Structure prediction request, 359 residues.
Amino acid sequence: MRPSSEDELAGMIASAGGPVRICGGGTRGLSGAGEVLQTGGMSGIVLHEPGALTLVAKAGTPLAEVEAVLEGAGQRLPFEPMDARGLLESDGVPTVGGMAAANVSGPRRIQAGACRDYMLGVRFVDGAGRVVSNGGRVMKNVTGYDLVKLMAGSFGTLGVLTEVAFKVLPKPAAQAMLVLEGLSVAEAVAAMSRALGSAFDVTGAAHDPLAGRTLLRIEGFERSVGYRAERLQALLAGWIERDVVAVEEAWRSIRDVAPFHGRAGDVWRISCKPSDAPEVAARLGGDLLLDWGGGLVWALLPTGTDARAALAGIGGHATLVRGASQPRFAPQPEAVAAIAKGLRARFDPRGILNPGLMA
Prediction:
């Protein structure tokens, strides 16, 4: 199924006789039972108001198209969405709907926030074939549910997105990064915590043990960036990279988890307290990449490794991003699972949208 309009999509879902597997750009390696429903036929930028910092796009719109339009206006999506194709060895094209449905957020999340924080409004078709609209071009909500937040990260289990409105921000005039070398995980987490707790507005804090580098990014007006980078260097030592191309390439590598591309093994995404990152690293072994100041740990582990068992007792959660030896998502606490079940019963009473994906 490949609808070309919201009404056509609503008819398809209403008449569906069994499970439906929703596919945006097909870049995230999600699989499951049911007839495939592709959203790529619903594509195009509906509205872009640079002065109002607002963009509205249909769900099947390629993300590259949105980024090109924003680039032309000197703007960007602040949450820095990753491109998962290299990590997952997948084809396809990242889309607006897939990004929103997975709440895809990159290194800048620690400073700017997540994808869901910039979603102003959504339109979607629920599991009964009803068209639902929530939010708009301004940040407000007058319904009983904050559906914008619910849809972000729901992976299509509550409805099929047809349109998303975003707040966008201007691109900074300059950027630089402080590079620290030879730190252990514990030392890197301590350095990143100091940087993020400083007054220098760090927009990225990552540690790559494979390269032996800890990276701290600063963005803004040129003179401000230079001043803050030098002050951060005085605080932590290291050296400053000022070449814009080198800085962008380094953070694109962190964003897309490039050190794990083309390598065998299971890939786990662990969210934890930054202070727990050294213990996470010690328990898991394997190759690691730390982002969000240590609050996000990517781990490349031997096929079949159960990271959740290894991390028992540590707060947070582990998601299997690449591999099939364990369920993709961690079991939810009983209270949360009850809420999730109630929401699915409300928006997908027949249980046909990506069934079992988040079980």
